[in-house]
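chain below, 180 aa
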Amino acid sequence: MANVQMHALRLFREIGYNATTVEQIAEAAEISPSTFFRYFSTKEDVMITDNYDPLLIASFEKQPPELSTLQAVRNAMLSGISELSADEIKTMRERNQLIMSVPELRAATLNNLTQTMQLLTEMIAKRTGHKSDDLAVRTFAGAVVGVNISVMFYCAENPEADFAKMLDEALAKLEEGLPL
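prediction:
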């Protein structure tokens, strides 16, 4: 999967997202188009799909119970990023810039983040003993996802910015009650 994504990102960079076809990505990755579609249902998915959610869940579940829910979420989100290599961070930065600049990818990312918000809602409800349809739990998860979106936009506009540092600062602002 990572090999296909690497070739897709390279082609998107070289010839543009809209000009790149699934067939070109498959050829570059030395797979058939049908194999491509076993891993990714659309061209957008090749940039949106990652393995972050299982890592987030595992890290969140390991957080000490004495931490506030936001501290546990913050630690879990940052631990996944801190484990990335320099090359993976560079790729994440390039993917983010592409996602934020291509309307189809932004839309697909919004859908993906809605799924992440539901995942967060379930994790938070389990940790706090609330129901997952509790408005406070959903609002909390939505605020965390909103912070992530704001950091994605910021880092796309400021490519030299450190995503992990910006996410940590933004989540700290949320924890402080968003004083302006």
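The chain has two domains: 1-42, 50-175. The chain has ten helices and no strands.
thats it, cya
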